[in-house]
Amino acid sequence: METNGQANGLKSRKKENGDGKDNLWSAILEEVQNQGNTKLPSNKNVLVLGDNETGKTTLIAKLQGVEDPKKGSALEYAYIDVRDEYRDDHTRLSVWVLDGDPGHTNLLKFALNEETFPHTLVIFTVAMTTPWGILDQLQSWASALGDHIDKLNFTAEQRLESKKAQTQKWLRYTEPGDELEPATSPMKRSSRNLADELAHDDDDDAPLPEAVLTTNLGLDIVVVVTKTDYMSTLEKEHDYRDEHFDFMQQWIRRFCLQYGAALFYTSAKEDKNCDLLYKYLTHRIYGLPFRTPALIVEKDAVLIPAGWDSMKKISILYENMQSCKPDDYYRDVIVQPATRKSGGLREAEVCAEDEQAFLQRQLAALQAGAPAPRADSPLRAAQRTAAQLDGTKISMGGGSPGNEGVLASFFNSLLYKKTGSPGARAADASPAAAAARSDAAAELDRLTRAKRLASDC
């Protein structure tokens, strides 16, 4: 009897184990089937905010794979093609780029409203070309975004749910690269999901670390510092050192902690972190794999996913700060260089008088029988200087009437020499014009000979 009972118990345990295996495989197959039927959603959006000249349009063009970006105005729309290689699916990610003029913030209602809010990720852009304005710009745009969100018609429960979702995302962050199996493996997904369900129940009630999400807008946020290739110029021309870049980075990272944001340093010119930013956006928006850990070694290619950072990790940067303290006012350390005011030192621009206008005045003066204005005649000044040097007096208006007539003909021929000018006459074929030019040439020859004789004597 005892032997039969043991046998029945063994059969029962085997049956239970078999049922457990069947249930596990059934769950895995069901999950694979459900994921196979899941398509990438087409209602996702990215909203890009930042001052002008912070590289918003260039950044989006880089994410699109476009070489020749075209800048729009006010509220610009674009899209990024997103492809899921594992499910052989693709969709379009809508992108809204707001102009950097604060007067256009009223256009936010078209890009971020009650319907699109749950499906929107926000990017704040700042540029390394103006490092002194980075923190002010981030705080200004975050404030503008917060004011807009406060105006949306949400219930208190909806606002609380959106903030709770951001808290859970931060707490549930895990370091990529820890998995022994590919993240897309059905077995790995099932085992992680089962473990996550137990861990996430505790995460919901876990307190946030110090200084994290103290301002929770209920949105995914990514801070992108563009044009990091300019950091070498800051070192050469403005004497920036590593401690300056560390000082900037720790303030930016503290801002990211406050809003629960990720941080990317990018350079479209040198193609730094642009591909990783694309993969992170698709990971954050569509749940696609992102296996790159935080990168903080290279000062111009920093990458910090949301949920990784902490004040303890930021404090490592304090060790390199010798001439400043972490809590120093940002603009006291990162000072805007003085702009040179060249208006007062610049010499007045001298505009040359039109040649035809000058000759016309000389002709009018000669025809009127009065000497030409001396102050307005460069030719007279040159002749007077030559006469003083050589001791030779050359008259160009105070001479005989014959000389005045010759000079009048000379200036007249110069006036109408250019037939292409407006009002030009076809005087080249006129015998009178030819005679005038001949008399002028003879007079000039005579003056030249007289000058040479004076020099020889």
TrEMBL record:
Which Gene Ontology CC terms are recorded? centrosome; cytoplasmic dynein complex; microtubule
Q: What would be an example GO MF term here?
A: dynein heavy chain binding
Which InterPro entries does the record cross-reference, listed alphabetically?
A: Dynein1_light_intermed_chain, Dynein_light_int_chain
Its keywords, alphabetically, are: ATP-binding, Cytoplasm, Cytoskeleton, Dynein, Microtubule, Motor protein, Nucleotide-binding, Transport
Segments carrying the region annotation (Disordered) are 1-22
State the superkingdom. Answer: Eukaryota
* Stated family: Belongs to the dynein light intermediate chain family.
Name recorded for this polypeptide: Dynein light intermediate chain
